[in-house]
Amino acid sequence: MPAWAAKPSGLLVLALLASQAGPVTAQTSDLVSQNAFRVCADPANYPMSNEAGEGFENKIAALLAEKLDRPLTYEWFPMATGFIRNTLAANRCDVVIGYAQGHELVQNTNHYFTSVYTLIVPEDGELSEVTALSDPALEGKRIGVIAGSPPGNHMARNGLMGDAEAYRLFVDRRYESPAQDMLADLDAGELDAAVLWGPIGGPLVKDEHPDMKVVPLIAEDGPPRLFFRITMGVRRGEEVWKRELNSLIRRHQDEINAILSEAGVPLVNDMGTEIVEVSQ
């Protein structure tokens, strides 16, 4: 996807207007709306976001909009190829609530949580005490995993891919949900375990599969890492807007943590080595 670039004609108009204005306070950005908190989001990406506002990213967006005293509006687009190009880069919105740190298509704010991939097993099953993919108890078991996701490398290293069941990575969530399909197969006994990104697996288990156990994979050795710091994404060059969001994150981190914890998102420290407990 191409990097965002403003149209020269638009910049020229803004420069002319600025040259005729008197002293004013610093503006967040020429492109960031001052009248609404405009969020780019996937309309069918529950438990993170959906059009009904039920995802934890929706609730974080609502919190920030309230603190900014601006109405919350959305630009909906599937989280797939073209997402940034058709939303943030097209100036149809000003922030993506959840984006992995270091992604080159956006400028990242400070991270507002760190999470990790998880192993999900029946709570009372024979694998209920497993805490790592290197555990011999997993040998020969049918384990669901999203194709191309980082845990696959660890599973291969531990000889677990021969019996694994791969689920598609790139899908339009309006029509199919590999994570929900995986957990349904686990519930039906077609799988012995499932490996999912914590912010997806944790909330789905809490909502739909109370007899399952979510185990954060914080004890894995070797690359690739299984924990990721999650930020908000803004357009490149919008430093003042990024600093404003960073300030909001810092001042309201406890409220953000409470939303994540209530949703069932497993939180870990910044190095992915310890589980973080949030007081309710």
UniProtKB/TrEMBL annotation:
- The UniProt record lists the Solute-binding protein family 3/N-terminal domain at 36-263
UniProt KW keywords: Signal
SMART domains found in the cross-reference section? PBPb (SM00062)
Spell out where the chain crosses the membrane.
none
Q: Which domain of life is it from?
A: Bacteria
Quick check: keyword Signal in the entry?
A: yes
Q: Where is the signal peptide?
A: 1-26
Please report the name of this protein according to its UniProt entry.
Quinoprotein dehydrogenase-associated probable ABC transporter substrate-binding protein
